């Protein structure tokens, strides 16, 4: 009876699924590539075994940049280090387990600012055995998603990646963002979230909230902003705390004060403390207490962020005082801000997924303090240029021409030229 064998480039044995060492030895002896074609060939060979490599997207990121169009070939130290690390990862690739079709599947997924990660596995004797690693870097548009959109994107990515394994079976999805559980029962949400939720309707999913410290398998795959791996503290985290430790917001403020930052508590500190500990502020009268209990129902705590279900049924992140001015600047005075009025600036902040109670008031103050708006805005009718009717006679007699740019290069082009005939349009 055969104990092990090579099937489609993988070594199959009673221990699980391994890489083919003969292929790895060939890759290990490859010299650093000197052309774009060589990099593409190396990444193609290494990508064949990416299911065995955690954080594959992060490791290959410097090499992938060299494949971009119109980019000079510069195989620098960062690329050399990525080349060496990837070969080491291939040599020390772990053994993954084959799927057991009689057992339920579990997916651990997580998202960070720059990537999403997922791991498919099954539990045997209460131990999670990995079947498949997957990770994906976010493009320029996805990087601008809100936190809850990135977390749901991680779920959609993992479901699509592991579709052939989980279709027709019940799947437990572990995520460290508690607001996702609410989204699946929500009737109204942003169109993008609704489309993703509809895509997930064909699967039998059970969403479980899991702390990032417990969700280490996927959490590690997505943390691209960390320069190096940190040692994992395996000390058990207490689920019960003495009363003096319940006020997480107060502890955060004390830490900020020790670091030389503002010690002012965020405006939502009372909401956080109530959600975490169930304690209502003692200085509230009966009417204020009743209003507080009614308002807190619209807030969800996803450590370390607080989210609110606004009146338009969109979930937005609650912003502390020290971040509000930066957000207003980006939504009003940045290159894409447009220097809109106070109300439109506030609407743009809400559209970006942020909220705080004094948003409209702060937006008006910011607008009135903007030097450029005060110099060029509110032109009186007396100072306007006189309007003249354009005589339209024949097709192609009168044209309106405008151009925009520069934009990010696309096929070597930087500008858009628009020409409109006033008669035919």
From TrEMBL:
Q: Which GO terms describe its molecular function?
A: endonuclease activity; hydrolase activity; nucleic acid binding; RNA-directed DNA polymerase activity
InterPro entries cross-referenced by the UniProt entry: DNA/RNA_pol_sf, Integrase_H2C2, Retrovirus_Pol_polyprotein, Rev_trsase/Diguanyl_cyclase, RNaseH_sf, RT_RNaseH
Q: Where is the Integrase zinc-binding domain?
A: 319-376
Pinpoint the Reverse transcriptase RNase H-like domain residues.
Answer: 100-203
* A Pfam family of this chain: Integrase_H2C2
Supply the alphabetized keyword list.
Answer: Endonuclease, Hydrolase, Nuclease, Nucleotidyltransferase, RNA-directed DNA polymerase, Transferase
The cross-references to PANTHER family, in alphabetical order and at most eight, read: PROTEIN CBG26694 (PTHR37984), PROTEIN NYNRIN-LIKE (PTHR37984:SF5)
Q: What is this protein called?
A: Uncharacterized protein
Q: Which organism is it from?
A: Hibiscus trionum (Flower of an hour)
């Amino acid at each position: 009876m055969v104990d092990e064998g090579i099937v489609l480039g993988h070594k199959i044995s009673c221990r699980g699924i391994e890489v083919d060492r003969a292929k790895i030895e060939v890759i290990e002896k490859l010299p650093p590539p000197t052309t774009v074609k060589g990099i593409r060939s190396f990444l193609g060979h290494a990508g064949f075994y990416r299911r065995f490599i955690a954080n594959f997207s992060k490791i290959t990121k410097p090499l992938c940049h060299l494949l971009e169009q119109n980019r000079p070939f510069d195989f620098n130290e960062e690329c050399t280090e990525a080349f060496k690390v990837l070969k080491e990862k291939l040599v020390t690739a772990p053994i993954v387990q084959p799927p057991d079709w009689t057992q339920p599947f579990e997916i651990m997924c997580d998202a960070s600012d720059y990537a999403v990660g997922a791991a498919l596995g099954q539990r045997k004797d209460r131990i999670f055995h990995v079947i498949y690693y997957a990770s994906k870097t976010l493009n320029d548009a996805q990087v601008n998603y809100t936190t809850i959109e990135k977390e749901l994107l991680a779920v959609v990515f993992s479901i699509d990646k592991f579709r052939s394994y989980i279709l027709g079976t019940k799947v437990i999805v572990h995520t460290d963002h508690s607001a996702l559980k609410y989204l699946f029962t929500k009737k109204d949400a942003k169109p993008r979230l609704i489309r993703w939720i509809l895509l997930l309707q064909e699967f039998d999913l059970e969403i479980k909230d899991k702390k990032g410290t417990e969700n280490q398998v996927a959490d590690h795959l997505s943390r691209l902003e960390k320069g190096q791996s940190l040692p994992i503290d395996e000390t058990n985290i207490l689920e019960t705390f003495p009363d003096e430790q319940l006020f997480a917001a107060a502890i955060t403020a004390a830490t900020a004060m020790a670091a030389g930052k503002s010690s002012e508590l965020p405006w939502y500190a009372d909401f956080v403390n109530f959600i975490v500990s169930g304690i209502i502020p003692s200085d509230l009268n009966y009417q204020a207490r009743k209003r507080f209990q009614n308002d807190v129902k619209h807030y969800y705590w996803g450590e370390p962020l607080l989210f609110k279900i606004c009146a338009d049924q969109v979930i937005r992140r609650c912003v502390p005082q020290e971040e509000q001015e930066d957000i207003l600047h980006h939504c009003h005075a940045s290159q894409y801000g447009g220097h809109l009025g106070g109300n439109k600036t506030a609407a743009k902040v809400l559209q970006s997924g942020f909220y705080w109670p004094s948003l409209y008031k702060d937006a008006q103050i910011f607008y009135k303090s903007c030097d450029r708006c005060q110099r060029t805005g509110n032109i009186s009718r007396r100072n306007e240029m006189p309007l003249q009717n354009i005589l339209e006679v024949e097709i192609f007699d009168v044209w309106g021409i405008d151009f925009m740019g520069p934009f990010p290069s696309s096929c070597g082009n930087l500008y858009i030229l628009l020409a409109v005939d006033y008669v035919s349009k």
